[in-house]
Amino acid sequence: MGYETRRVITLEFEDGDETAFVRFKSMTFADYGAMLEDGSAKAVGAALADRLIEWNFELDGEPIPMTAEGVELLDPSLRDKILREFMEALRGSAANHPLARKSSKPVEAPSMNMEDL
Q: How many Cβ atoms sit within 10 Å of the Cβ of residue 51?
């Protein structure tokens, strides 16, 4: 069994006593590149909407749908903050990636010679 490379990322935003959150799946390098080609906030919002797992946003007491249209219903400052944090979480930091941690178990690669090929 291999290592699952797609992570679930959670963003949390505090506003006084309330905490808003967004959970989404990360994306592939190809999807990330395609999103950057467009570069618009609308394209980033659509990419976020495609990867949403859960959020707790409401408008007038009703849950906001987890769609591209729902992203557009957010207050502009909140939407922009979420999109910035979304991009930052996708880019992340190599030092913070789970695979950047060193294992305490040594791993030996199998030896091969030319006859094995």
A: 20
Which residues pair with residue 19 across a beta bridge?
14
Please state, in angstroms and rounded to a whole number, the distance separating the CA atoms of residues 99 and 63.
36
Distances (CA, A) of 37 to 33, 73, 74, 88: 6, 24, 24, 17
| Euclidean distance between CA atoms 53 and 34, whole angstroms | 21
For residue 96, pLDDT over 70 is answered with: no
- C-beta atoms surrounding 50 within 10 Å: 15
Structure tokens at 117: 């090929």
**Residue 44, both tokens:** 């980033």
Q: Which residues contact 11 (CB under 8 A, 6 or more apart)?
A: 21, 22, 23, 82, 85, 86, 89
Mean pLDDT of all residues belonging to the chain: 80
